[in-house]
């Protein structure tokens, strides 16, 4: 089995570094999507009103 040349090894490292950068970017993008959004105050007020209305029925 032949040993890989220095240029082959350098190319593999460059490809791996590129893939790593891409994966880090994808992970950061996914983490931004998963962060909880702040609650809208109108949503909380609407929920309270609905609960009160349902309870009175």
Written description of the protein model:
With 57 residues, the protein is mostly helical. The protein has helices at residues 6-34, 41-56. The termini are far apart. The model has no long low-confidence stretch (mean pLDDT 81).
How do the helices and strands line up, and which of them pair or pack?
Elements: H1 6-34, H2 41-56
How would you describe this structure in keywords?
single chain; 57 residues; mainly alpha; 79% helix
Q: What string gives the helices and strands in order?
A: HH
Shape: rod-shaped
Annotation, overall tally of beta strands: 0
Gyration radius, to the nearest Å? Answer: 27 Å
Q: Structural class of the helix and strand makeup?
A: mainly alpha
- Give the averaged pLDDT, no decimals: 81
Beta-strand share of residues: under 5%
Termini, distance in Å? 81 Å
Largest sheet: none
Q: Low-confidence runs (pLDDT<50, min 5 residues)?
A: none
Helix tally equals: 2
Helical coverage, percent range? over 70%
């Amino acid at each position: 089995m032949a040993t890989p040349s220095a240029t082959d090894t350098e190319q593999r490292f460059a490809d791996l570094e590129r893939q790593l950068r891409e994966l880090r970017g994808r992970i950061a993008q996914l983490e931004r999507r998963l962060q909880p959004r702040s609650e809208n105050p109108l949503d909380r007020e609407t929920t309270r009103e609905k609960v009160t209305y349902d309870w009175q029925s």
